[in-house]
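Purpose: get a first structural picture of the assembly so the mutagenesis plan has something to point at.
Setup: three entries, given in the order below. No constraints added.
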Amino acid sequence: MSEYHDPSNVVNPEHADHHIVTPVTYGIVFATLLIFTGITVAAAFKNLGILNPVVALAIACTKGVIVILFFMHVKYQSKLVKLTVASGFFTFLVLITMTLSDYVSRAWGLW
Amino acid sequence: MDNTIVATHPHTHETAVAAEHEHVALPQHRHHFETPEQQREAGTFGMWLFLLTEIMFFGGLFFAYLLYRNWYNPAFVAASNQLSIPLGTANTAILISSGFFMALAVWAAEVRKKSLLVIFLVLTTLFGLAFLGIKYFEYKEKWDKNHIPGQNFDVREFVNPHAYGLKEEPLAPDMAQKTQVFFFLYFAMTGMHALHMIIGIVLLFWLMWRANRGEFSAGYVAPIENFGLYWHFVDIVWIFLFPLLYLINRHPVS
Amino acid sequence: MSATSSTILNLPDQRTATLPKRTYINNEDGLLSWLFTGDHKRIAILYLISITFFFFIGGAFAGLIRLELLTPQGDLMASDTYNKMFSMHGIIMVFLFLVPSVPATLGNFLMPIMLGAKDLAFPKINLLSWYLYWLGGIVVLGALVLGGVDTGWTFTTPLSTHYLNTHVVTAATGVFILGFSSIFTGLNFIVTIHRMRAPGMTWFRMPLFVWSHYAASILMVLGTPVLAITLTLVALERLVGIGVFDPTKGGDPLLFQHLFWFYSHPAVYIMILPGMGVISEVISTFSRKRVFGYTAVAFSSVAIALFGFFVWAHHMFIMGVSNYSALVFSLLTMLVAVPSAIKTFNWAFTMQKGSITFETPMLYAFGFLGLFTIGGMTGVFLGALGMDIHLTETYFIVAHFHFVMVGGMLMAFLAGIHFWWPKMTGRMYPESLSKLAAVTTFIGFNLTFLPQFILGYLGMPRRYHAYPPEFQVLNVLSTAGATVLGVGYMLPLLYLAWSLKYGAIAGNNPWQATGLEWQIQSPPITENFIEIPIVDHEAYDYEWLEHKTAQEVTTVG
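Result (structure tokens, whole complex):
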């Protein structure tokens, strides 16, 4: 790069490539998302007991992760962007779980 | 006294930068960034930070939903079954398609194909408008059935579903009133989502106009890329809203 | 340069200092060049004027509160009016003063310079931030003019949603807009710190001021949106009657509090962290010694931000959360006090064996150290579940947060303003008058708020305009202190304004401080640097500074 080693960042911090995702990849992702949509609707009509909401959320999370990784290019981005996305979901989970802990513990056994 | 910091290393970074980048700097290069890469990375990072705020913004609504779905599960089930699965599924497919076209638009900008870029942006917008159209239709249906929470809310269908030809368990009157909570959350969450889509579509029109003038097919892709991030995020919100609102309990009562 | 007997060591000959010809102030002329600027320094000055304006409005409300509390009876104003007084005081002071105070003024001005950058990452968003601040401020003032809001700054449900006819929605809208102003500032800072540091400026060479702002910015970006959705829900509840917080319709009023405090607890760290950053800089400079335990202070800033997200329900111990939940949050609250304590110890050890002098910024920093420690420790008392049951909703709480916010944060803000005034304006303020103001503020503050700890412990409730007669003496002391405090705050306004025209010219580095901002002219040029610096020394490297100044021409200017 240059004689001056730049441990900080000016030019290209983590030498992240401008990887251009091809339309073929997008097509596969698109098809996958539609298939998962079909699966989640079909699963809703089957009585899986306690697993119904679990399956629905699992499928939704999978679809979300696929969109993030491929449509939003996070798979090809720097570690900083990946960390940023993770921290957003971490904080969201803190909000949900810690608030829930109050409601769950209010009536032990009645929840 | 001048402002130069006396560095102990030779001042080579300017020549190094010039050697690294053979291509001409983009006209949109802002002066406070040293390189276009820095500007592009900063822009993407900034957009992701904004999306973090959106995650937390919707987070509050998701928690309220989580709480009341558990407190008033029968009411939520009955109310959710009033939503149309065909319309909801169609909307999900439409929005995913819209996202697909947006991703292709980013690709077109990156490979500098102007007409493809414009086409894909148009398709993104059309599918987005289709989504909103179906949503309007769904909202209107709720209005007609007096299922908008408030003064005129009608619980009769929930108290006596068989009289309306519905295969549901009848709800006790106080639990039937809790269907309003479901509908409030339904309108709040899908409404907030729709608001974000409307803002996105307005931005899309602006981007289409600029793309048509060739502003994004000469290497400057950041606005398309970053708008794409926003649009995909709105898509992800719907990916969660759909099963949570429409698919609570669609299996027959055993 | 050898130490002299003057209070400012190594002060170059001030009489030779001249104002630079071209600065960010005179670079462009005209009101529009200020109103449409992208220059972070100009935006910082715009913010400074704005928050000062709102500070004195909020202060006026404080004056009215203390005036009412001179006598035990509610004789100055009706109880509803009194409720409006403390509500407006809280809303204005928290959202229009404390949250933006250091970040939007000093942070905006200094961060790019400290990092060696020409501007923040998104200058236009910076300007948008300022316009949103004014939009929110005008809406809040609108709520005031229309008749005020009396929910308290905490908008607690179901009072705010079902039992009041005041302008809750207007005030909530104003705060919503202000939230976005804050979010955009934080977003800008995070991107700038990650992506715009000069070559050689590694994370651990950044001034601790920057670390504090980084931590506060994370809180701004992740916490504020939850406030936004909460206020939206309150507005919808009022306007449409949806029932999300209404028990009769199946809602839970406590849900509001969970969502509100999820932001509002990190908010207090948003308010204090930048102030702590200022204190790190001031103490280091006026002890002529590098900050003790740089890494510990840097990591504790981030730790405060992280742990700050886990403790919010300590504002809700008596509100109906479960006992188990209260226990967990109480334990976590003990944890969050640790990083703040680490910082305080590190500041103390910075001063040990330093060459301490007592310029005005250092006086404010000393005030901060003592008062923030008291405020912080009383916070730990309140975090203990048993103590909180007795002390919550009394004046103990009021005293606690005024100690950390006014005795801590406001003193840090004043320390920073005085410390960087020469850099921002090129002028020195009159030192003896500023010292007088600092001491007056300190005395006034203690007289105002120490009695309130006692009042709270004795059981005087907060947010009441009347109280039992046995509490009057302490209340009178508190009001007397408030008057002194008011004088202490008026003085800087007057002499700082005076100094703009008549103050001594400062030169580049009147305090002989380290940091990139002190190596450029005062006031800086618009681009900050003629060439981007290459950083090859650590932060607070006084040996480097001595070596560098020894090589330079010994006149200032």
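Chain A touches chain C through 19 residues (CB under 8 Å).
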